[in-house]
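Quick one:
INPUT:
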C-alpha cells in the first residue's frame, strides 16, 4: 500500500480496502470479502463497494463515504458498537489516510460469523412418526429424517454467514406401549434431548437434561463441517433401569458442495435414530411411541443487511 497515517489516500489504496467485487474472495482486510459474495464462511451477499477507476488519483469524499458506510453496515451487524474512529467527509475536504480503516476491516473479517442480533424465527410444522415393536427380546431401531433446503449454494452460505440457524426440536413424546421399554425411549427423546441448533461453524449444545451424554458436538461441528456422510452431532445413552444400552443419535449430512464458492450444500438432512437394545426375557416389553418434532428456522437479522438468503424449505 502507498498510504501512511497523515498522508493522502490514493485510488489504489481505496481499491485494496474495498477488495474487488468480493466474488470468490475470502481475504482479511478487504471489505467486499465480507460484505459481498465472498467465499466459504466469508460473504453476506450484499452489494459490493465499487472500485475507483483511476487508481493513481486521490479519492473523492463520496467514494470514501461509500466505503465507510460499507464497513459500518458490516460492523453494526456484527456488533452493537459498530466501528470507532472512522470519519466520513464532505465534498471539498481532504481525506487523510488513517490506520483505523485497516484495523476495522481486519476486525470485520475476524468477526464475520458473529452477529449483534438475529432476525425472526419460523416455527416449522410438527411431524409425528409412530414407532412400534412387539413384546419380545429383540433389538429395535427407529429412524426419521427432516430436511432444510436453500434456494442456492450461495443463499445457504449467506444464511449461515449472517447468523442463521437450523433448530431440530422435540416437542413431546407419547408412549402408549409398554410402561418400561417404551418409556425408556420416550425419556431419551423428550427429556434427555430437547433440541439442537446448527450454525455456520458450530452447533449449540443440546438442550435437555440427564442421560449419559457421550457426544455433543459444538465448536467446529456446524454447517461448514458437514459432508455427504451422516455425522453424529449428539449421542446419548439412556439411564432407565434395565435399559442402560438404549441410545439416541442425532445425525447431520448435506448434499455436498453445489456451487463454486466453497459452500457445504443446499440440502441439510437431520436424522434422529432411537435404538432399543435387546433385552432378556425378564425385561421384554412392547413399544408404541409417537415422537412429535419440528424444524425451526432462525433467520439472520435484516436490520443492517438485506435478505440475500431467501426462504428455507422444510420437509
Amino acid at each position: 500500500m502507498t498510504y501512511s497515517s497523515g498522508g493522502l489516500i490514493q485510488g489504489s489504496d481505496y481499491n485494496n480496502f474495498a477488495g474487488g467485487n468480493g466474488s470468490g474472495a475470502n481475504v482479511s482486510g478487504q471489505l467486499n470479502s465480507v460484505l459481498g459474495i465472498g467465499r466459504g464462511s466469508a460473504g453476506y451477499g450484499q452489494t459490493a463497494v465499487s472500485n475507483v477507476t483511476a487508481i493513481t488519483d486521490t479519492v473523492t469524499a463520496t467514494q470514501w463515504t461509500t466505503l465507510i458506510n460499507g464497513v459500518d453496515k458490516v460492523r453494526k451487524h456484527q456488533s452493537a458498537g459498530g466501528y470507532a474512529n472512522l470519519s466520513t467527509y464532505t465534498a471539498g475536504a481532504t481525506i487523510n489516510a488513517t490506520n483505523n480503516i485497516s484495523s476495522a476491516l481486519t476486525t470485520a473479517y475476524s468477526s464475520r460469523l458473529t452477529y449483534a442480533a438475529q432476525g425472526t424465527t419460523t416455527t416449522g410444522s410438527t411431524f409425528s412418526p409412530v414407532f412400534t415393536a412387539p413384546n419380545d427380546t429383540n433389538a429395535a431401531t427407529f429412524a426419521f429424517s427432516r430436511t432444510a433446503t436453500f434456494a442456492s449454494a450461495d443463499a445457504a452460505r449467506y444464511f449461515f454467514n449472517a447468523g442463521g440457524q437450523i433448530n431440530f426440536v422435540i416437542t413431546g413424546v407419547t408412549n402408549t406401549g409398554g410402561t418400561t421399554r417404551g418409556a425408556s425411549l420416550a425419556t431419551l427423546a423428550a427429556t434427555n434431548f430437547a433440541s439442537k441448533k446448527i450454525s455456520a461453524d458450530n452447533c449449540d449444545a443440546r438442550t435437555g437434561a440427564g442421560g449419559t451424554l457421550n457426544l455433543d458436538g459444538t465448536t467446529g461441528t456446524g454447517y461448514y463441517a458437514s459432508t455427504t456422510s451422516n455425522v453424529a452431532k449428539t449421542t446419548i445413552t439412556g439411564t432407565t433401569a434395565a435399559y442402560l444400552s438404549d441410545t439416541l443419535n442425532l445425525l447431520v449430512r448435506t448434499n455436498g458442495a453445489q456451487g463454486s464458492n466453497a459452500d457445504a450444500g443446499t440440502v441439510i438432512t437431520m436424522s434422529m435414530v432411537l435404538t432399543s437394545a435387546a433385552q432378556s426375557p425378564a425385561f421384554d416389553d412392547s413399544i408404541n411411541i409417537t415422537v412429535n418434532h419440528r424444524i425451526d428456522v432462525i433467520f439472520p437479522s435484516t436490520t443492517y443487511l438485506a435478505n440475500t438468503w431467501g426462504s428455507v424449505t422444510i420437509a
